[in-house]
Amino acid sequence: MNTPALAVREFPLISHRAAVYCGISGIMGGLLLFMGDMLLFYAPVATDKFAVMGNLPAWRIVLSGQSALLAVSFYVLACGQIQHAFEPTKKWLRWTVCGSFVFIMLAYGVVHGAFIAVAVAAQIAVDLDLPAQALSALAVTSNDAIRQLVYPVFGLFSVLFVVAVWTRQTAYPRWLALCSPATFFVVREPLVSRLPEHLQSVVDGGYLNLIIVVFFSLATSALWMAQEPK
């Protein structure tokens, strides 16, 4: 006599409530790294970032570098929300989106940490009475080379995320597809240029982290208001 196989219920890796907390972690990471950006780029009057970094007190550069490690820790935790939201999708899609997002979040910290070399070069230039931008050129080139590795992964994540959310395959509402990080990335220049001049350097200097703050604020609010699945 054959015994019928028992149905095995699959439980989500991350609960609905934990996914909300993961989103809050993403917001905290974005705000923390935004403050790290401001430690490097903000000055009440100057708008040239190389001139600003060249005249910073050393403690601001040190704290900015430390903020990268702390912020990325929050960012990686935030990836749990993406995993939860994509739980209804096919496994290859879920883990491709999650893996690419983890890569992007780690890159945030690496790029910010590498930019400390630009700030140090600018400081040396000021000490030697040399053009800060010229002496920082190699550090900037190295930083840009790191970014070039991230852009294809960001493109892959963006396409898969937008299509999956728009076609209602995920736990996110459909409208979030229009508020993905890619959307804010594309409108950066026209958006920043329309801000008051005194805000442009602040927003532009920390724009990439503000994108994450806005995205996780919207995504977390949507999950918070949604009914927890039984």
Provide a concise account of the structure shown.
This protein is mostly helical and 230 residues long. It is built from 10 helices and no strands.
Q: Could you outline the blueprint of secondary structure elements for this entry?
A:
Blueprint: H1 16-41, H2 49-54, H3 58-85, H4 91-127, H5 132-135, H6 137-166, H7 181-186, H8 188-193, H9 197-205, H10 207-225
- Low-pLDDT windows of residues: 5-9
The SSE string, one letter per element, is: HHHHHHHHHH
- Oligomerization: single chain
Rg value = 21 Å
Question: What do you see in this structure?
Answer:
The chain is mainly alpha-helical. The chain has a domain at 16-46 and 63-103 and 151-225. The chain has helices spanning 16-41, 49-54, 58-85, 91-127, 132-135, 137-166, 181-186, 188-193, 197-205, 207-225. The protein is elongated. Residues 5-9 have low confidence and may be disordered.
Keywords:
230 residues, mainly alpha, 10 helices, 74% helix
